[in-house]
Every structure is written in C-alpha cells, then in structure tokens.
Design a protein that fits this description.
It contains three helices and three strands; from the N terminus they run βαβααβ. By secondary structure, the chain is an alpha+beta fold.
C-alpha cells in the first residue's frame, strides 16, 4: 500500500520552477511548493502473498488497486 503525492503533479511543479528560473528569478527567492493532491495505491497480490486481508472500505477509497 502506498499513499503519496501524484507523480505527474510533482513533474509539473518542477517544470514551473525551471520556467521561473529560466525567466530570471533567483532560485533562493522562490517559495517552496508542496503537493496538494495525493493518491492511495493498494497492491492486492502483495497483500495476499503476505497473508494480509485488505478491508473492502479501504479498497473502495483507493485510487488504484493492483490485482
């Protein structure tokens, strides 16, 4: 199971930083941008291999379920 920021958004934020630096802003003056969207991914195959049961309610709220 993994809960973390969406990778595509992280790459988008990196592109925004790069564009601002290339336009002449100083890197030290740029604010820290934190991710705002997160995703929950559950790997059922790994859970079964470990002998774990994932509750249905958790599966219902997961963004992605790997079977």
């Amino acid at each position: 199971m993994s809960y973390g920021p969406i990778e595509k958004d992280s790459f988008r934020l990196a592109g925004i930083y790069a564009a601002r630096i290339l336009k002449g802003e100083k890197p030290a003056s740029l604010p820290v941008m934190q991710p705002t969207k997160f995703e929950l991914v559950i790997n059922l195959a790994a859970a079964k291999a470990l002998g774990l049961e994932v509750p249905d309610k958790l599966l219902a709220v997961a963004d992605e379920v790997i079977e």
